[in-house]
Amino acid sequence: MAAEDPIQQLDPTPDRIPLEEVYMRMAEELSKRSTCARLQVGSVITTGDLTQVLGIGYNGNARGLPNRCDSTQPGNCGCIHSEQNALIKAGAQLPGKVMFVSASPCVMCAKMIINTNVARVYYREAYRDPAGLDVLRQGGVEVIHYNRWRDSWR
User: Fold this and answer.
1) What pLDDT, in 10s, does the model give residues 122-147?
2) 3-class SS at 108?
């Protein structure tokens, strides 16, 4: 079960788009760059106070390789996951990072998220296997299913 988003507890609609929604939409836009045939995913990593973007990513092949999956077999497409691409850019040492992902992380990405000091993960859609969310929680990462303002400010 996802932690309840504190923003969802507020009754009045804010007069402007919340930063959480801005970063989630940024992750969704980044997913459109993905070359994965099965699932396009985008990620954004920010500082804990949401004032700086530290890394962005989307799933696809390694730099310099063909912009397509290596295989059509599910689970073996060969794409680097969006979370991995964003974490590579954000660095591991800064504690308290926040990650916004258009689809919840798989187990291996969850483990990388834990080891790179991400404190909170917002996700929009649930991945087909929820085990990654369980791993995040076991590792002390706050997990938030974020949909509150999805249809506002469009």
Assistant:
1) 999 999 999 999 999 999 999 999 99
2) helix
* CA neighbor of 129 nearest in space, from 71, 86, 75: 75
| pTM score of the predicted model | 0.88
Q: What angle do CA 129, 68, 38 make, to 5 degrees?
A: 25
Query: Which ranges in the chain belong to alpha helices (H)?
Result: 19-31, 82-90, 107-115, 131-138
CB neighbourhood size of 64 (10 A): 5
- What is the CA 53 to chain-centroid distance, rounded? 13
Distance, in Å, from the CA atom of 146 to the CA atom of 124, rounded to the nearest integer, reads 5
**DSSP element (H, E) containing 88:** helix 82-90
